[in-house]
Amino acid sequence: MSKKIKEKKPREPRQSLxxxxxxxxxxxxxxxxxxxxxxxxxxxxxxVLQGIHSSIYAVFTLHLFNSLDTGEPxxxxxxxxxxxxxxxxxFNVLDRSWHRVVKPNLHHKLNQGIHTELFRKTREIDVACYxxxxxxxxxxxxxxxxxxxxxxxxEDLTRMTARFLELITVLGTLAAAKLDTVIxxxxxxxxxxxxxxxxxxxxxxxxxxxxxxxLYRKQSYINRxxxxxxxxxxxxxxxxxxxxxxxxxxxxAKKVKVSKKYGIKFFFIYGIFYxxxxxxxxxxxxxxxxxxxxxxxxLVGVFAASTGLIWRVRWNISDFVQRLAKFHEHSxxxxxxxxxxxxxxxxxxxxxxxxxxxxxxxxxxxxxYDFSDKPKYQWHKSDHKKPKNENSGSADALKGIDLKIxxxxxIAIVGYNGAGKTTLIKLLMRLYDPTVGEVLxxxxxxxxxxxxxxxxxxxxxxxxxxxxxxxxxxxxMAGDYNDETDAENVSRSLEAAGFNDKLASLEKGTGTMxxxxxxxxxxxxxxxxxxxxxIARVFARPYELWIMDEPSSALDPVAEYELNQSILKYAExxxxxxxSHRLSTTRMADRIYMFDSGRLAEVGSHEELMARNGKYAxxxxxxxxxxxxx
Length: 630
Prior knowledge:
The protein is 61% helix and 10% strand. By secondary structure, the protein is α/β, with parallel strands linked by helices. Among the domains are: 17-342, ABC transporter type 1, transmembrane domain (ABC transporter transmembrane region fold, Up-down Bundle), CATH 1.20.1560; 471-542, no CATH class.
């Protein structure tokens, strides 16, 4: 009888004090970099000004009660209260201005700086990372936590500054009032206990959120399906709604289970142990001071004022220590962020300039989607240990491919779905590098060239192209659009892609916003219209090599024929690679590569392959029969 082996989850590496300090120091440096004015003003307002305000309140309270005990003139007491009221007025004006006007704007500035860094890093990471669900969790974690954690760290530092200033003032005031030092020692001891409790509490909080992140990501996906117009029709005409609701219910049940799991731990640590301890200490101190009052060791006014000040001492110490302990929690969360930024891509850029295109060649190229070697995002290399995974799998996409494309040729790469055609494009674009073999550009390894300049030579329309929620002109230029310099180019490119009729019907022309997500006057294009805009991107740039991945998949036969003729016209002197499982474009190709199950099955012109009567001929005849039957 076999026993079910429970998989052990990898434990988070223990963090040394030096590591915690370094993690927090680095993010604080980023705050200083992206929003230095936020740092300065936050320390002045939330640190110094708040500390002074609390200190003034402490001193005012003791002096007020002392004045009652010593029989000070009523006019002096009124003057003291008036002075305090004036200070409160000034402080509240400054405080409200900071929290309502200045601080939110500076937070936006910081958020933008940190997220821009993440966006740029996202562009660098390997496309292979997207094959790993773990990547999504880490990326979402980094996006969610980076800016919010930096704000929390700055807030903790400034609040600790305020607490420290108030503690110094209050303790000095209490010492001047000759308060028993036993009480001060007890308050400090409570702070130490608070530090230990919060250390464990922060570890539980981190573990809790780590388990919740994948669940929240799934919930976010379900929410997105329901609010995006792309899914509206499918939900209404299919039974996907039942599936999604069931998935949402199951996901919610898992979240409840996680909440209960960690909620019980929080209850015992904070709800029972910590609260009982705090209440016992508070009542003990009050009772001790009351005995001192009965013994005549202090006046009633001093007792009343000191009781309130001691509560503030205890609260200040507790809050100071609690915020200090949170830096360990911050460090745990920041590990994901730093690890994401520290990830070293496998597809790296060379340094050589890219010459004019002459040839592109694949020599004995094989590629495997290997799921056993998942991307890792370690911030500290010493912690990196590659997990053993005997049951990990891989999927062969291409095997032993040899082909060469020369300048000016029109090449067709065909095959059924899953034959490896799209994987081939990713290798040519260096979105992946071959597992075996190499890609040669002008006879030299593509790895030796600057990767951005290399990709700038190749214009590609992917089968799963995307339309951005921006103007038609910006979509065609795939970036910034200048009306003075780019208008003629955009119009020409759209005409070449067969978009003219649709463009003429739009009031704002190329300035029309695509999708209505952010503009109710925008327009939603059909699949064929969207594909024409995507194709216009290739016409709009001076690419030397065009790759058309299923360029007519959303077009009717007439539009497909017109597009093919347009491509031939505008591609004169250029190299074009057609990727398709529909063979209507193959007749105009100089050479056809027939792929089957990741292997190169046949090579030749249309006439040569038809005469061979192999897989290509079989596929062509099958499609021809369907057109005839129709």
